[in-house]
Design brief:
The complex is a heterodimer of chains A (216) and B (228). Chain A is mainly α and 216 residues long. Chain A is built from eight helices and no strands. In chain A, 40% of the residues are buried. In chain B, helix 2 packs antiparallel against helix 7 (134-164), helix 3 crosses helix 5 and helix 5 crosses helix 7. Chain B starts with 6 loop residues before the first helix and ends with a helix. Chain B is an all-alpha fold. The longest helix of chain B has 38 residues, at 190-227. The radius of gyration of chain B is 22 Å and the shape is elongated. Classes of the chains: A mainly alpha (216), B mainly alpha (228). Chains A and B meet through helix 2, helix 3, helix 6, helix 7 and helix 8 of A and helix 3, helix 4, helix 5, helix 7 and helix 8 of B.
């Protein structure tokens, strides 16, 4: 049996961390785009547009993320990693949409009227007037959401993807003593903690700077 | 024609409806027990984090930061796979109640702390000057005013708590997610199993979502009213 922190074990865990980060980053990227569109749709004046986005958010935010992960894995022909990214994009978009909707609600109606009266189109008003202001106040809750995404990537171990948690569990099967097992749990938890604590510390600093609250 | 949602799969599910009913019951039990624990932990630690005792504030901070910044899955695995190495084998139900409860207790704590701190300091000072104890002032003066701020995020947290009980499927917890997933993979009837599980989770969470939205509206009104 090799030593717990042998280079090959560290490489093994690093591979898992790589998978964790890929799933998190790719799904956050797509969720920002789709979630912003959905959030804007929820404040749209056309009731049909509003209802479609509202229905999506209400359905997704009321069922477990793990269920969506299983459904994408076993009901689509996608490979496990693709199914994971799709599932994460589906539920993170709904969360981003809620944050965007909250941000849009904080922008006074006068901003819209002023922009429209100056001849800005609907999309130009969004692009140049509304969204820049919304994004500024959205940074803390969005970063909070990223923490959730990083933490939730563990769920994909349930569909056999060997991300950080999965690799850790596989490694754990090779060791038997109490210190080894606890060291492994501790190290994995510490990696997640370092990642998430930096993110949430950034969110808090940003929140203080902007005098806005974070979403718990 | 054998699609993922073929009629005979629905019939097979209807035949085995007890599997889903039992899972649903377990999920409700996990929800009730972990919610109770989270509420106690959240109220106590949330109130402690507004006291002047630096020691207790730091203690609560450590609790909140550790549990909010590490994954629930790791915490559950630790209770389920780690503790037995110390000779402590918890029944899987206790793993769920304890794991999900302590994790969400950290979020409850933050919601309650933020709510208490949103009440102007003068309220507390006035109450103390009238001879109320710190706890008396919190209980009778500050918390009633903090509730409109606390309740909307707290209700949202309850929705996350319900959704997160599904993590018990990863340790064979017998909950709705576990029962429906194992039924689905046993019969290869994934479609109906996930739809029914989704509807059952939705039936718990949707009323909570409605409640959260109503509370949000009420709190915005009461704050707007207070400003004018």
């Amino acid at each position: 049996m090799t030593e717990l922190f042998a280079p090959e074990n560290l490489r093994f865990l690093a591979e898992g961390l790589g998978t964790t980060l890929i799933i998190a980053f790719v799904s956050i990227f797509f969720s920002l785009i789709i979630g912003t569109a959905l959030g804007v749709m929820r404040t749209h004046e056309n009731p049909l547009v509003k209802a479609v986005a509202g229905l999506y958010v209400e359905v997704i935010r009321n069922i477990p993320n793990l269920l969506i992960i299983f459904a994408m894995r076993f009901l689509t022909p996608l490979r496990a990693i693709e199914a994971a990214i799709l599932a994460f994009t589906i539920f993170t978009s709904a969360a981003v949409a809620e944050i965007v909707r909250g941000g849009m609600a904080s922008i006074g109606h006068g901003q819209w009227e002023a922009a429209r009266s100056q001849g800005f189109s609907y999309f130009k008003t969004l692009r140049y007037i509304i969204l820049p202001q919304v994004f500024r106040t959205m940074v803390p809750p969005l970063v909070g959401q990223f923490v959730t995404v990083v933490k939730d990537t563990c769920f994909v171990w349930a569909i056999g993807i060997e991300e950080l948690t999965g690799k850790g569990m596989i490694l754990m099967g090779k060791y038997t003593t109490v210190p080894q097992i606890f060291m492994l749990f501790g190290s994995i938890a510490l990696i997640y903690f370092a990642l998430n604590f930096s993110l949430s510390a950034f969110a808090r600093a940003q929140a203080r700077r902007l005098h806005v609250g974070t979403i718990a | 024609m054998e699609g993922p949602f073929a009629a005979f799969k629905w019939l097979a599910l209807a035949n085995d409806w007890q599997v889903f009913a039992e899972g649903f019951g377990m999920t409700l039990l996990y929800t009730a027990s972990s919610f109770s624990l989270a509420l106690v932990l959240g109220v106590v630690s949330g109130m402690i984090s507004t006291t002047r005792s630096r020691f207790f504030r730091v203690l609560v901070r450590i609790y909140v930061e550790i549990f909010q910044n590490t994954p629930l899955v790791i915490q559950i695995f630790f209770l389920y796979n780690g503790l037995p190495y110390l000779g402590l084998v918890l029944p899987v139900f206790a793993v769920g109640a304890l794991g999900v409860g302590v994790y969400h207790g950290a979020y409850f704590s933050e919601a309650i702390r933020a709510g208490i701190q949103s009440v102007p300091k003068g309220q507390m000072e006035a109450a103390l000057s009238q001879g109320l104890s710190h706890w008396g002032a919190l209980r009778h003066i500050v918390i009633p005013q903090a509730l409109p701020t606390i309740l909307p995020p707290l209700t949202n947290q309850v929705i996350y708590l319900v959704r997160n009980t599904a993590v018990m499927a990863m340790v064979s917890g017998g909950d709705l997610m576990f029962r429906s997933d194992s039924w689905a993979s046993e019969h290869l009837h994934y479609g109906p199993a996930y739809v029914v599980a989704g509807l059952l989770y939705f039936s718990i969470c949707f009323p909570l979502s409605r409640l959260a939205r109503r509370l949000e509206r009420n709190s915005t009104f009461s704050q707007a009213g207070a400003k004018t």
